[in-house]
Design brief:
The protein is 66% helix and 0% strand. By secondary structure, it is mostly helical. The chain has two domains: 139 residues, Leucine-rich Repeat Variant, CATH 1.25.10.10; 126 residues, Leucine-rich Repeat Variant (Alpha Horseshoe), CATH 1.25.10.10. Helix 10 runs antiparallel to helix 11 and helix 10 packs parallel to helix 13. Pfam families: Fes1 (PF08609). One of its GO terms (cellular component) is endoplasmic reticulum. Keywords: Repeat.
């Protein structure tokens, strides 16, 4: 038993001594591997891989030994590359400066000078005969319209005497000049009280109304109505001129015309006028002139354009708004058949496409033909 104990003990004593050097060797190997510097080697081909040993590229920065060193190495390499590719910046000589200034000057326009030149050219439009070429004047007008939509430029256009060209251009024998100048008047007047006042003083309003009624050019009639609308909307003072020059009759006749855009624009203008505050005078004028009867007849047409129909409904809604009694009484006249027309529209209109019109028809039926109101259309 004693011998057996000694053998086991010697074995246990010898094992730690035999294993200790191996652990020490492993640690040394690991530390040597970590301390080995990274090397950047040049590209190799399959032909010389076995013959020529890989060598680090010459003239390289100090090779990194850890992650921080690797990051610094990459940043230094990128910075040196940027410096090599950076273009040199030199000051401009006088010749190049002159060329650049002339190029920039050619891209800028003195608007007032351009408008003055245009006014000077258009002042001779009276000399243009019906068989003359009007392209020069048309080009001038086309260029002008790009400038005058700015309110400040529009006001300056009046101050340089630009409004003096309106009467000659509106009375030109060339329709392309007439409709273009009407378009310019519209741009000048839109949301510009100063120009709206000055246009009324210039006397263009009755000329524009006459163009809506009688001009042989469809485009000239449309643009004239556009100009009238821009002068009137948002400008209460112009309503007096509209009444004085029988403008409401002109608008009603425009609604009866065969030109769809005239129908739409005239109905839209009337709708806008009836929807404003303190519009009972306008509503009463339209009732006396037979607008409701005309609107009821148009709504009953089978081939009425959807946009025109929508605007007519808007005008009627505006006229009966605030329970304006003269309009309500006129709508209830049995001869107009307005109730049956509205009910028929409700069966024909599609909810997805015509929801606004459906709502207006329902509102008109409730407001005009409710059971509590008498007399009613039966």
């Amino acid at each position: 038993m004693g011998t057996s104990f000694v053998k086991q003990s010697s074995v246990k004593m010898s094992n730690p001594e035999n294993k200790e050097p191996k652990k020490h060797q492993v640690k040394q190997g690991q530390s040597n591997s970590n301390a080995r510097p990274l090397s950047i080697e040049g590209p190799s081909t399959s032909s010389n891989t076995e013959q020529i040993p890989r060598q680090p590229l010459p003239n390289q920065p100090r090779q990194p030994t850890n992650l921080q060193g690797l990051l610094k190495y990459a940043m230094d390499a990128a910075q040196s590359e940027d410096l090599e590719n950076k273009s040199q910046v030199y000051p401009l000589d006088e010749e190049k400066k002159t060329f650049l200034n002339e190029a920039l000057s050619s891209l800028t326009v003195n608007v007032i000078e351009e408008l003055q030149k245009a006014v000077q050219i258009l002042s001779n439009v009276n000399n243009l005969r019906a068989d003359d070429d009007s392209s020069e004047y048309e080009n001038v007008l086309e260029r002008m319209v790009d400038f005058v939509d700015n309110i400040d430029i529009a006001n300056d256009f009046y101050k340089i005497g630009g409004f003096s060209i309106f009467q000659p251009c509106l009375n030109s024998s060339h329709s392309n000049i007439r409709w273009r100048i009407a378009d310019i008047i519209a741009e000048l007047a839109q949301n510009n009280p100063f120009c709206q006042d000055k246009l009324l003083e210039a006397g263009v309003f009755p000329v524009l109304l006459s163009m809506i009624d009688t001009d042989p050019s469809e485009q000239a009639r449309i643009k004239a109505l556009y100009a009238v609308s821009c002068i009137v909307r948002g400008h209460p003072a112009s309503l007096k001129y509209l009444d004085m020059n029988d403008g409401y009759s002109v608008l009603l006749r425009a609604m009866q015309s065969s030109v769809e855009k005239l129908q739409i624009k005239s109905a839209f203008l009337l709708s806008s006028l009836c929807s404003r505050n303190n519009s009972n005078d306008i509503k009463y004028t339209l009732v006396k002139m037979g607008f409701i009867e005309q609107a009821a007849g148009l709504l009953g047409r089978m081939n009425l354009q959807p946009t025109v129909r929508e605007q007519l409904l808007r005008v009627l809604s505006g006229m009966v708004n605030d329970n304006f009694l003269p309009a309500l009484k006129e709508c209830r006249r049995s001869q107009l058949c307005l109730r049956s027309t509205l009910e028929q529209l409700l069966t024909e209109l599609k909810p997805v496409e015509n929801q606004d019109e459906i709502d207006m028809c329902s509102e008109l039926l409730d407001k005009v033909f409710s059971e509590s109101d008498t007399p009613q259309e039966r």
